[in-house]
Amino acid sequence: SWPQVNTVLPGPRSSELLARKDRVLQGPLRDGENVPFVLGQKHGHVIEDVDGNTFADHVSAWGAAPYGAQPPLVREAVNTAWDRYGMEISQYLSSEPVLSLAERLVEIAPGQITRVAPTVTGTEAVEGSVKLAREVTGRPIILGFLGQYHGESTYLTAAASTDLPSNTRGFAQYVPGVVLVPYPQSFRAPFHRGPGPYDDTLYLEYIREWVLRYQVEPDQVAGVLIEPVAGEAGILSPSQAFWDGLTAMCQEYDWKLILDEVQTGLGRCGTVFAAERWGLEPDLLLVGKGVTGGGQAVAGVLGTEEMMAGSAAHLGGTYAWEPAACAGALAGLDLLADGSVLSNVMALESIAREELGPLVGEVGQVGDVRWVGAWACLEFVTVADATEPAPEFQHAVHLAAMRRGVFAISEESKPLYRMQPALTMEPELFRWSCRQVADAIRE
Ligand code: PLP
User: Fold this and answer.
1) Which of 59, 120, 123, 163 to mutate for ligand 1's pocket (most ligand atoms within 8 Å of CB)?
2) CA-only gyration radius of the chain, Å
3) Inside any domain, residue 67
4) Any atom of ligand 1 within 6 Å of the Cβ of 410
């Protein structure tokens, strides 16, 4: 039986809890007002709210639950390791799961990666990569891309800015050493508006000019911090021409390529790392979310010998790679190693193309539909002006889809609707969900 919603949203119990949330949690919360229910329980790919309504889960903890809720192998590995090791500080006292996880990641990483620096969160991994790049190169500046997301620390809020208003509110002014350039292939979203061109073949020259406009000497730039597919900006996926050009530019100026694969890594794009899709060989590669297997928090910086071996920079912290988290992550990597996960991801990609693709052209408010692997995004515009974002329409679609039992990602600051299921979601459930979303759009 398919997921089903039987109350108005929010239901009575959710309403009570949301009122408590408003009173006690600091805001503005990301997407706070957008989710009109409170989690009751979650199993596999289905969420049940506290009023007994059920939803197909197209959020998958924003990618941190890649195998659905409580995958048995991961649960068993976490519990066994916790029974054996308890909580331990791995940066001081090593244990086997920690070392095995590092070795496995080095084994499967693209390019010349030889070492790993453990962190708990993706944010710390990205911060750590900035620290390493600056330390190794002796250069202060990082090129970031507008529209990306790298985490909530002060530096990364400035160095990415999915949410341009947060930058205009002034976070960037606290943070020297960030130069933001627009992400390529920008489409209609307000935070991407402004000077073009967005043609990838011209784009690299544009970056060069942009850097000069900021009066940045290329030899002051330590590295380029970029998501291979910009997830929270709406599944923007640059072309091979862009990546080839960027790689050449990095070589020309000796900029380090820092790939943020916190979202894209470990299967989301249909390859183990998105870097493989474009033949990228990063100097530093950041993992999080997908690497956890859906168990406990694990993230980290993977790097080349040049970046990692000679550096005095230290990353980590008390909770970084505690043994049970590493055991869960290893179980997740075992699941990924079975090729059926990646073939399922590609099956989901085909379904998104078939079911959502035709909405462009058919429905005026659907400006664009994009998909990569187990990731799909609809971008809404007004019928009168296809460059004008349509937030009310987006909100209505999000609510209508939830009433039909589909829970996905829709943030108030962006005219995007993003479906990010677990890599293992059954194709039938994904197809059903896409059809509910299409009907919600037509309704
Ligand atoms: N980098 C990317 C691309 C992300 O999507 C995220 C989180 O959404 C992060 C970094 C930050 O990771 P975390 O939330 O674990 O700190």
Assistant:
1) 123
2) 21
3) no
4) no
